[in-house]
Amino acid sequence: MPSGSSTIAEAPRSGEPAGRRERSWLQVRWWQFRHAPRPVVRAVASSSIVAAMLGVLYLAYDVAITREVQLPGGDLRSLAAVVFVALVLLIGTVVTYLIVPQPTGAGGRPRRSAWSGALGFFAAVPIAYVALVLASQVLKPLILGLV
Prior knowledge:
Radius of gyration: 24 Å
Order of helices and strands: HHHH
Number of strands: 0
Distance between the termini: 75 Å
Structural class: mainly alpha
């Protein structure tokens, strides 16, 4: 008998049917995507909405500066990008804090906690940067190419 083999068949894990097969990495991630917890969905949605609205303003400013429109203060695109990211982080955090109550258990009132705000902040970080890249690297060339 080769080393490492056993004569006793492995028993199924508790709570798992005997004929169940392992899922692939992609199947597991797809299931997790489709069954995301409500607080996470709310945090991502609120930050995405804020980033989309502010992204339109940033994109309009960026296109105007690129077309050499004379605006007060001159070319402040770097500052505009920093303000964009800061506002998405701040507003995304506050909105998530307001709409994601902490679980209460048996019959208690929903409460707010710093954890709701932290969830909003950590959801807003990648969304802010993805929105900034989308606005400046994808949408801006499309807009400038069309007009």
